[in-house]
Design goal:
By secondary structure, the chain is an alpha+beta fold. Helices cover 43% and strands 12% of the residues.
């Protein structure tokens, strides 16, 4: 089919020529280009004339009819007014009466051989932009919904399947997972998150709190379109493949010989926050959004009413951007930008700050890390005035032994088997005892530092379930910004140009192909929140196995999980904790403490 000549355009053109022999069709094509530079097909123009005639027949003025067409077809009322005037001036009554009698038919059902070149191009553009924005392939339903809702085209399922196979698209029946599968411990963590998000949404509906979603991402000066497209090319040379050549065009011509992943050059880390209303940033009277200089953004000691943050990274060899955004920078940004901006814009509301569990979000100053030495762990015992620990150990026959008490003077000694009382505790025993003691006596010191900062200002932090980006609105924000960065990729892009491209990803700008990248607005942000909440409702049903339940009624006053409960996490896996539980038991106040499901 790639090399076949389609007859759709020719047939439609001849049909209209029979109605209107005196029309210069080259002039029509030239005159009625929309703002994105896409030429309307003859069918599309005829459809608009048909709709305008129908609306005017129903006692609408031309301006009202043009407004209705703007809603139906997008574009501008000026274009439709000019289109109507052009056809009206030609004086052909027959075509007017034909459209008037048929009424509005905003959809057309196509067979594969009826699809015009322009309609095929719509399919390529959708496949390209969907994959770049979402980082994954799309379903047949995604494609069908796009064609129907955005282009007014109805195509049956079998025709779509044929279309996909014709252009070497292949799809997997397996669901896409990010990171870990849902084992028992993952389900527990997901359950905690879904209950807390349900609680957060209830507070937002009560108009006392606002959910603020945020995350960090990165972009390189050489960030271009990636090779994660689901189109599987059979040609050795992409120039011989219609789909590849279309993709190269959409990628602004930067890929010349092959489609490849390209993330090279200097790097910037960026971050911002969104609520359902849009970006969390002060709006100025004349310039739209507050846009400080990039030097001001990097000075995190300065309080600004914007959550925008764009910094250049110094080490190009570090692959993980989390290693280039340290805890000290993040805490300053969190307090001087995020909380400061929220308090300025919503002085009578409280924030529920929704973010993931990356390392610098989870830093806790009340506990050592799991990699700390016994000497480092001892410092925290001194900090919290803990002078001894008690444990019971299992022997070779898996029998529990007597209670062993170790004073702080013996902490440096190694454990012994023959005379355990004369030895000391193991590092794991000291680490778990400290965590369980603080969990029981001082749970607030185990919370991440940013949770403590948020509570100091009257706000709350909601931590997402790990490896679950489909529940994160900020993932859609970062993808949208990166789409702008990729569409603006140019040879030898400087770091300052990259910063501007990232900023335009937030606030709007023009791509290299002269397309308008819209600023992140209410419709966009609320749509992202709706999309992740739809996914959460599916998780409630499919993973938690809870019927007749969704986010609106999941959380109740007596629920096990509460948004305001201290968020306590230990940096050990469930597998490790289970293994350790078979070696010893922690005793606090003469009671055995369970640590398998921490």
């Amino acid at each position: 089919m790639n090399n076949k000549k389609r007859k759709g355009d020719t047939i439609n053109l001849n049909r209209l020529k029979r109605h209107k022999k005196d029309i210069n069709f080259d002039d029509v094509i030239d005159k009625f280009k929309n703002k994105n530079g896409r030429v309307r097909t003859v069918d599309e123009n005829a459809l608009i004339i048909q709709a305008l005639a129908y609306f005017q027949k129903n006692n609408m003025s031309l301006d009202q009819a043009c407004k209705e067409c703007e809603i139906m077809f997008k574009g501008s009322t000026h274009t439709y007014r000019s289109l109507w005037k052009y056809f009206e001036e030609t004086g052909d009554v027959n075509i007017y009466e034909t459209y008037e009698q048929r009424g509005v038919q905003p959809h057309k059902i196509l067979e594969i051989y009826d699809m015009t070149n322009e309609e095929i191009d719509c399919f390529f553009e959708f496949a390209f932009e969907f994959t770049i924005a979402n980082g994954t392939g799309f379903s047949v339903n995604d494609l069908a919904n796009f064609l129907q809702e955005e282009k007014g085209i109805l195509i049956d399922h079998s025709t779509l399947i044929y279309l996909l196979h014709e252009y070497n698209f292949s799809w997997s029946d397996q669901p896409v997972y990010y990171g870990c599968q849902y084992q028992r411990d993952r389900i527990i963590e997901l359950k905690r998150f879904l209950f807390q998000y349900s609680h957060a949404k209830k507070l937002e509906l009560e108009n006392t709190h606002i959910i603020v979603a945020t995350d960090e991402s990165w972009a390189n000066t050489g960030t271009n379109f990636e090779s994660s497209w689901i189109h599987k090319c059979n040609d050795m040379n992409p120039d011989n493949c219609l789909v590849c050549t279309k993709y190269i065009t959409l990628a602004n011509g930067d890929a010349k010989t092959k489609i490849s992943k390209l993330n090279i050059g200097k790097r910037c880390v960026f971050s911002h926050c969104i609520t359902r209303q849009g970006l969390l940033v002060e709006e100025t009277k004349y310039d739209g959004f507050l846009k400080p200089s990039f030097d001001e953004l990097e000075n995190l000691n300065q309080k600004l009413n914007t959550c925008e943050y764009i910094i250049e990274c110094g080490n190009d060899n570090v692959k993980d951007y989390h290693q280039q955004m340290d805890f000290e920078k993040y805490v300053k940004w969190f307090e001087n930008r995020l909380i400061n901006t929220f308090n300025c814009l919503f002085p009578d509301k409280k924030a529920i700050i929704f973010l993931d569990q990356c390392p610098f979000h989870m830093v806790c100053d009340g506990m050592p890390s799991s990699s700390s030495t016994k000497v480092e762990i001892m410092k925290y015992y001194q900090k919290h005035n803990i002078t001894s620990i008690q444990v019971k150990r299992f022997n070779k026959n898996e029998e529990i032994g007597p209670t062993l008490t170790f004073d702080i003077e013996n902490f440096n000694k190694n454990p012994t088997i023959t005379n355990p009382n004369l030895g000391g505790p193991s590092k794991d025993e000291m680490y778990l005892y400290l965590f369980l003691y603080l969990k029981k006596k001082k749970p607030e010191v185990l919370e991440p530092v940013i949770s403590q900062i948020a509570k100091k200002h009257g706000h709350q932090v909601l931590f997402a379930c790990p490896y679950n980006p489909n529940d994160m609105p900020s993932e859609f924000l970062n993808s949208y910004v990166k789409l702008m960065v990729k569409q603006c990729c140019r040879k030898n892009r400087t770091i300052e140009e990259l910063k501007n491209d990232i900023r335009n990803g937030f606030y709007g700008g023009i791509t290299r192909s002269k397309r308008q990248h819209i600023n992140v607005n209410f419709k966009m942000a609320s749509g992202w929140f709706d999309k992740v909440e739809e996914n959460m409702n599916r998780e409630i049903k499919d993973i938690l196995k809870m019927e007749n339940t969704d986010l609106s009624n999941l959380w109740k006053q007596n629920s096990e999980y509460n948004l305001f409960s201290p968020f306590l996490r230990i940096s050990k896996t469930q597998k490790t904790l289970q293994k350790l539980s078979k070696r010893f038991v922690i005793i606090i106040d003469n009671e055995s403490q369970q640590f398998v499901n921490l």
